[in-house]
């Protein structure tokens, strides 16, 4: 399968939203319950470091960074979001997207990436750890999803290029 990674374009959002909703529907990807409209999604993520994975002119995955904090001192810290279409999971799409996102983040001056992953999402945890993220701890019962308390594993990756 020929996969390319390229910058996100606004016209990609309908496909991105479908993939996002598919992840939401697993109950182990996010606390969100519905993919947002484009304007809300656009406000949530940094304008740089938005990527899509494409095959045969179809978006099959996406990744983006959101601000860790509004405080200037944390301007080089961002949180990773990554989703892959269920039809393309297990085919290195996530690995390629996260690798490209790490490179893009370092080129943009980010020195630390964070991730919050449900402990049940073993594939996502393994992917992040494979690419240099380390587990810092678990936020226990941090929020409810469908009325049930959920934990979140907190990970971070420091850039080797910036230091």
Automatic annotation (TrEMBL):
Keyword Transferase recorded: yes
Q: Which domain of life is it from?
A: Bacteria
N-acetyltransferase domain segment(s) = 3-161
Q: Which Gene3D superfamilies match?
A: 3.40.630.30
Name the keywords, alphabetized: Acyltransferase, Transferase
* The keyword Hydrolase is annotated on this UniProt entry: no
Q: Know the name of this protein?
A: N-acetyltransferase family protein
Question: In which organism is this protein found?
Answer: Leeuwenhoekiella parthenopeia
């Amino acid at each position: 399968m020929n996969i390319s990674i390229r910058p996100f374009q606004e016209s990609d959002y309908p496909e991105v939203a479908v993939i996002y909703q598919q992840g939401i529907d697993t109950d182990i990807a996010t606390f969100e319950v519905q993919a947002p409209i484009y304007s809300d999604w656009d406000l949530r993520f940094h304008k740089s470091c938005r990527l899509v994975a494409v095959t045969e002119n179809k978006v099959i995955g996406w990744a983006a960074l959101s601000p860790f904090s509004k405080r200037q001192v944390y301007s080089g810290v961002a949180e990773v979001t990554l989703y892959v279409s269920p039809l393309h999971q297990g085919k290195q799409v996530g690995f390629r997207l996260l690798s490209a996102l790490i490179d893009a983040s370092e080129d943009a001056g980010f020195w630390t990436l964070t991730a919050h992953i449900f402990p049940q999402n073993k594939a996502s945890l393994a992917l992040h750890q494979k690419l240099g993220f380390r587990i810092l701890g678990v936020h226990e019962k941090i929020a409810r999803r469908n009325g049930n308390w959920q934990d979140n594993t907190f990970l971070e990756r420091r850039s080797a290029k910036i230091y």
